[in-house]
Design goal:
This protein has about 140 residues and is an alpha+beta fold. The chain has two domains: about 5-55; about 65-130. Helix content is about 35%, strand content about 20%. It contains two helices and five strands. The protein has a five-stranded mixed beta barrel.
């Protein structure tokens, strides 16, 4: 085979590999596009597992997190809550808290339930813990 024939043969192989690479890249793009379409469609109709995960609360209780505890009874006015720190997460989903009362005195609480959807200090949050409210920064 002549030198020109060898070069043409190598060139033909290179072109074949380029075509194969281009075809594989196109197939990958098409597959990625199909996955994206399916994900968007499922998000819109709410049938995707990822959408269910995204709807869960972002914050999860963990040891050391600062929370608020709303006392029940004991003559406390509505809107009163104490600072507390999560000390332990129990198997049943309740938590043990280390609380500070309004005078800064510490006391323990065990088996405290989460006040889901109720703000600290509200009637619904009595004897439960809640996440602190977001306080936006003051404008300069």
């Amino acid at each position: 085979m002549s030198e020109d024939g060898k070069l043409m043969g190598e060139y033909g192989k290179a072109r074949a590999f380029e075509k194969l690479d281009a075809e594989q890249e196109r197939q990958k793009r098409d597959a990625d596009g199909a996955k994206l379409k399916a994900l968007l469609a499922s998000r819109l109709d709410g049938s995707d597992e990822a959408a269910k995960v995204a709807s869960k609360p972002v914050q999860q209780p963990s040891v050391g997190r600062a929370v608020h505890f709303t006392p029940g009874g004991l003559g406390f006015e509505a809107g009163t809550f104490f600072h507390a720190t999560i000390a332990k997460i129990n198997a049943d989903g309740t938590v043990n808290l280390g609380c500070l009362d309004l005078d800064g005195c510490a006391f323990p609480l065990q088996g405290v339930a989460y006040a889901a959807g109720a703000p600290a200090g509200s009637e619904e949050a009595r004897n439960k813990w809640a996440w602190p409210s977001f306080v936006p920064p003051k404008a300069p």
